[in-house]
Please model this.
Amino acid sequence: MKGIFSVLVENRDGVLSGISGLFARRGYNIDSLAVGETEQRDVSSMTIVSTGDSRTIDQIEKHLNKKLDVIKVRRLDESRSIMLEMLLVKVGYTMGNRASLIELCNVMGAKIMHLSPKAMVIEMHSDPERVEEFIELVRNFGILELQRTGTIAVAKG
Amino acid sequence: MNGAQAMVECLKLEGVTKIFGIPGVAIAPFYDAVYQEPAVEHVLMRQEQNAGHAASGYSRISRKPAVCVTSSGPGATNLITALATAYADSIPLIAITGQVDSHLLGRDVFQEADMRGATESFVKYSYLVKSPDDIPRIMKEAFFVASTGRKGPVLIDIPCDVQRMEMKKPFKYPDEVNMRGYKPNTKGNAQQLAKVIDAINHSKKPLICAGGGVILGEGEEVVRAFCEKNNIPLVSTMMGIGVLRKSHPLYFGMLGNNGKPYANRAVANSDLLIVVGARIADRAVPKPENLEQQVKVIHIDIDTAEIGKNLGPTLPLVGDVRNIFQALLESDIHIDTKAWLEKLEDIKKNTVDTRHFSDRFVNPMLFVQSLSEKMEEDAIYVADVGQNQLWSADNYVMKAGRFLTTGGMGTMGYSIPAALGAMVCAPGKQVVAVCGDGSFQMSMNELATAAVNKIPLKVIVVKNRYLGLVKEYQHKNYDDRFSGVKLYDYPKYDKFAEAYDMKFFHVENNEERDGILDAFLACEHSALLVCEVDSGDVTV
Model:
C-alpha cells in the first residue's frame, strides 16, 4: 500500500538527513520526498510518499513520530487530500508530429514553456497519477530530459 | 563565563559529580574548567570506548544520566561503539565530544570527524553547539531527553572555539524544557488499560515477560507487587533479570535461546503473554510469528515504535511501566491461577538439562551459581559478552542486587569498565566483573584505572583459551572448522595481576572452587580470578 505522510519538522540543519537516514537504515522505501519552508520560518514541511505493507507503513509513522525534530506527523488518505506534482519535460519533435504533441498538451492541461526548432519544454502540474499518464503519452515522441518534483499534499476540509 | 565553564556549571546544576573520559586539544578548555571545579571529578580512562561503558555502569546504578567526555576525531570516534551499546540497551548517557574550531568545520583538518553524522543512528538526539549562549538550553534538554521516555544517549559535539568563547548573555540554567517535537507519553491510554484489564480477567494462564525496560523505568517493585497480588508468574529477558529474585515462587527464569527451556515452555503454554519493556529480539524469541499465533499478547512499552516492530498484532499499551502497573495494581482483577502455577511447577520439574560438562575443569554453571550465592545480598554482578554471559545469565542467583550486561548490542569488553563505573557510583558495594579470556583482552587496559583510583575491582576471567561462543557456533554450524578463534595461553594472568597490583586467584577444578571463591570475595584488595573451563563446554 501507499503511505503519504505530511510531516512538520524543525527547520534546522541535519533534520533532513536524519529523516532520510531513518528510511535508509530500516529499509523503508521513499517513493518521493518534497521539502520546503512553511508559513512559519522555523518549521519545514515534508511530504513523504512510501510504499510497503500496512505494518511497514505503521512503523514508518511511529519512527517518524519518535524523531525529536519532528513536530507533527499526519498520514494522508489519497482520496481525501489534494496531491500535486510538477513536471518539466523536454520532448523532441518533428514537423510531422508537432501538431499532435501540441494537441496532447492541450488535452492534458500541460503548458509549453519553450519552443526550439527540434524540441519543446513542457510544464505540467497535476496529481501524481495524471503526471505519470502524461509522461507515458509523451514517451513516444522522445523524451530528451525530464525533471519532476516530489508530491506535495494537503488534506481536504 | 566561557562556554566550557558554562558546561561544567550545567553539570554541577544537574548534580553530576563524576565524569569519565580522556582529554585532548579540542576539549582542553572543558578540561580546564573541570580542573577548576571541585564538585565535578574526572576519572581518566585508558580508552574512550571504556569511558562510555564506565558511564553506562555508573548510570545503571545511579539511575540517572551519566557523562563521558572525549576529544575530537579519533577520541570521539572511539566512543561510538559505547554509544551504540548504550543506545541498544536504552542507557541514558551524555556524551560530550570536543570538535575542531567552528571556522574549520568541514575542511578535514587534523582530528576532525563529523560526529553528528557518524552517530546519527546510535544516539537518541545530538547537538553541534554553535554559540556559548546556547549551552544552558542544550544541556538542560540533553539531560531531559536522555532520562525521559525511552532512555538513551545524547551527543553534544562542541567546537573548541565555542568552549573558549565568552557568553554574551548572563548564565541562566532554564527551569524547564520546551521541545515541541518531544513530549513522551507516560500515562497510558485509559481505554487501552481497560482492555488490558479485561484480557487479564479473561485469561486462565497469564504470564508476564519482563524486559530491561522494567528496570530502566524503575518498575521492579510495582511489577513484583502486581505479580504477587494476582499470582501471575513472570519470566524475564536477559536485560530483565532482576525484577524477581531467583527464589521467588512466581519466577520462571529467563526465556530465549540461551535461557531456561522451562521458561520457553511456560511462554508456549500460556494463553496471555504480557510483554513489558522488551524488544522481543531474535535471541529472546526466535520466531515471533509463531508466538503471535499461539497466544494473545499484550505489549506494554514506553516507546510507541516498539509496538508491532518485531511482534504483532498485539494489544498495545504505551506508557511508563510504573504508572501502568500502579494502575493495574489498583484495578479490579480477579483470576485464579492456581492450576496454571501448578502446571508451571510441573513443567519446571520435568525439564531436564541435557548439557554435559567436562569434570576435568570447572563447571561454569555451578561456578556462576556458587559465586552469585556467595556474593552479598545487594552485590552487583557485571557480565561481559560471550559464553560467559550466557552461563552468567542462565545461572546467576538473583537476590536483591543488580545484574548488568549488554543484552542489546552484545559488546565484548563491557564488563570491566562498566564495573568500574558502578563502583565509582556506589563505593563500598560489592561488584564483580565476569568476562571470558576474549572479552577480558578487549578492556584489560582499564585495570590501570582501577589501580590508580584505588578501586578494589574484582575481575573473574572464565578462561578456555578460545573465543568460546564463536567456537561453539563453528562446532554446531561449520563442522568443527574452528576459524580464527584460538587465543592460546596469553596473557599470563598471574603476571598480569602482579603488573596491576591485583591479588591473583586460580580455580582449576570443582573441588577447590568454593574455598577460592570465598577468599576472592573476602579480599579487600582488587583481585583477578581465573576460572579454567573446558573449551568443549557449550551454552545451549
Remarks:
- Chain B touches chain A at residues 116-117, 120-121, 124-126, 128, 145, 179-182, 303-305, 307-309, 312 (CB under 8 Å).
- The CA atoms of residues 259 and 394 of chain B lie 6 Å apart.
